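In response to reviewer comment 3 from the previous cycle, which asked for concrete evidence that the modeling workflow produces usable outputs, we include below a single protein chain processed end to end. The sequence was submitted unchanged, and the resulting C-alpha cells are shown without manual editing.
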Amino acid sequence: MTARERFIAALERRPVPGRVPTFELVFFLTMEAFGRVHPSHRSYHQWDQMEEAEREFHRRDMADLFIQTARRFDHDAIFLHPNPGREDEVLRCIDLVRQETGDEFFLMLHGDATYSIPSGADMSDWCARAVEEPKKVQAEAALRVDEALERGQRLADHGGLDGFALCADYCFNSGPFLPPDWFDDFVTPYLHRLVRGYRDQGHYVIKHTDGNIMPILDRLVEAEPHAIHSLDPQGGVDIAEVKRLVGDRVCLIGNVNCGLLDSGTEEECITSTRYALEQGMPGGGYIFSTSNCVYTGMRLSRYELILDVWRREGIAPDA
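The workflow returned the following C-alpha cells.
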C-alpha cells in the first residue's frame, strides 16, 4: 500500500498492514531539520511585485519542503500550507506536490468555516452579538459554510486534493467555549452541513479541535467526519475513553502529550507515546500523531524520540 492508501484505510477504519499511519497537522521545525524557513513563517507582502521566476522558485521550494518533511519523518499525509494562501497559489501547490509524488501521499488543506474560540479582544463582542443578534450571527455562520463548500467544489473539480482538516478550535482545557445549548445554536448545524457537503464532493474530513471535547464529543461524531484530531490530554481527554465511546464510528488521531514534549522527561514522553499507541491501535481506525502539532520551540530530538517508539511499537495487534 502507498502512504496515501494506508492513510485512507485508517480514515475508513479498515485494517492497515504494518505500522499505523502517522502525520502532523503542521511540522514547523523545518529550520532545525533542513535549515529552511517554514512556508508559514515567510513574508510575501510583495508577491505581486516579484518576477515570475522568483515566485516560481518559492513555489517549488515550498512544495519540496512539504515533500521532504513527509519523507524524512515517514508521514503518510501532507497538510499543505501554501503561502500566499490565495486560491490560485493553493492550486499550484497541489499540482507541484502531485507532479513530484504522484499518489504517494494523502494531501489535505485547512477547510473549516465554523466559529472557533474568539480572541481575547473579540470574546466579549462576539458573545454580546450572539445574545443580541442571534439570527445575524447564524446567518453569517451559514454564509461561511456556503463559501467554504463553493471553494471545496472548485478544489474537487481541479483534482489532486484528498480532503480537509477542519481546524476551528472549540474548547479550552476546561471545556467548550460555548455552553452546549449555545453550541447547538451557533456551531453544530453548520459543522454538520459543512462535513456532509465536503463528503458529498468526495473529500475526506478530519475535525481538529484542542481542549476538553468530552461535553460535545457526541456532536462532533454525529457530524460524521472521518476522523477526530487531536484528543488533547492536556484538556483531560483520555484516548482510551474516546476509543470506548466512539472508536467504532470515527477514526481517532493523536494523542501524544505536546506539553510533555516540552517540559516532561524523556521517559514521560515515551510513556505518553506508548499509551496513545496501546489504546488507539486495537480494532483499527487510528492514526498516530502529537496532541497538536510539531510547533516552533519544540526540540526536534523529542519528536524524533516519539517517532522511534512508533517505528518499533506502532504495529497494531490485529494488523
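The mean pLDDT is 97. We consider this sufficient to address the reviewer's concern, and the full set will be provided in the supplementary archive.
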